[in-house]
Amino acid sequence: MIARLKARDDAALRACDQAGWALGVALSSAINLIDPETIVLGGVFAPLFPWIGGAVAETLQARLGQMRLTVPPIMVSRLGSEAATLGAAGQVIEEIIADPAALL
User: Fold this and answer.
1) Contact (CB, 8 A) for 91 and 84
2) What are the pLDDT digits (tens) for 7-30?
């Protein structure tokens, strides 16, 4: 997909526009619910951000602009596509540290 996007393949670019719109719709609901200061995208969204970021931001602005003064900034996680894996590993490590005897 990335190779097709870099080659400016029309179908791939349209797919990213649609995915960015859908992600923006989903994020607008989450923003209304929890009011985050920043949105951090990781996992599969990290490498696609250059192509979906604009559509996400435009959709958020259209859906939230009338209710909010500003839309939270959107960033890419420095963990990239490894964010979910590292987060899960970190959670296990925290549980082990909190109760080492539970492993016995």
Assistant:
1) no
2) 999 999 999 999 999 999 999 989
